[in-house]
Batch of 2 targets.
Target 1
Amino acid sequence: MLGQKSKFYGVGMSSAEEFAVGEKVVYQSHGVGEIIAKEVEIISGFELKVYVISFLQDKMTLRVPVGRAASSGLRSIVDKGEVERIYSTLRGKAKQGNRMWSRRAQEYETKINSGNIVAVAEVVRDLYKNVDSDRSYSERTIYESALNRLASEVAVLENIDKDSAIGKLLDTLKEKIAA
């Protein structure tokens, strides 16, 4: 009976695991999404409770088992107190990359996919220095991925659109350079 679905009402869940339909969440490898449903799927005769998460920017829907939500990296949007840590990180000194680009690129990708918003801010800060110079395709791609991931969460936190969030983040980086 693969694929049968019924509504799921949160029975047997601890409050630490529970997300509400309509809540914005962060999935570590995809960024900000929205819980659009809670369902029970019947797979091989077993009930599997899942969150259905929509990622509009990627035009993707993901189903995450409720019991594995935390271990798979699903988390709530950070609180407004974290916003200052983000901006503080962006104003900080960029880490100098003295290793080969391939190793730094791996580290940056790991930070972006970690789900840690401050680690993503570090990637944006570290790669911003080359924003106007010739960058390799991979460096530009990693920078844009980190900036978009960071801006998506900042936009939700500050109740602004993503483009405005990108503008605020870039203004913070430009202020640091001007100082």
Note: The chain has two domains: 4-76, 81-178.
Target 2
Amino acid sequence: MPLFAVERDLSQLPPERFRSELKGLVAACARLKSAGKQVRYISSAVFPAEARGLCLFGAEQPQWIQEANEAAGLPYSRIFAMLDLTPSGVRRELSCGRRPPESETGRESGAAGRPVRVSEEIARWSDEGRQLLQVLGGWLETAGAIHDTAEVLEHERTALAESVRRLEEEARRLGEDVDGLRVQRDDLQEALQTIASQMTRTADEILYRFGARSAPGDLAPR
């Protein structure tokens, strides 16, 4: 059966209250199982310093885990798949965080009054769940945060590079505009000087024709 972890924000839910409300979650899983939906609650871990919790489930479909949590009224942040990486050959007592009380899960009373152990598979699932939760800790959240930060930095780097490219292009265009304006200014000054010289010669010729001035260029009176 595939394994899934449910991440919870426990900032508004004290650990003891969370533990008591897990009974409703177990009951919700039992109701779903009786309805033909294979979902099984395995174990929970709480990280008080971070106000977070992780719950381990086995289920054929992740939406059944969502239904169980919603039926129990327990808030959660996300549901994600997990892999069991416990090496084969590791004894159960080495990978188990703690042994459950035998009065709850270790033994049941048979018809003849003899103690009957729960199935080895259920015990293995429980042990693997606790071991996985201990190993996971805050690693998954930290890895996700690092990935998100890396993506944000990459986007910022790309945006900054694009801004620098646009500024360089704008500076190049401004330089070309300044050079063009300088050429136009020089041409305009030359044209103005030519026009002023032509106007001076024309005025001299007009005055000469009307006898108000000697011939252009002739400064001595005759």
Note: Helices lie at 15-34, 62-72, 92-95, 102-106, 120-136, 139-209.
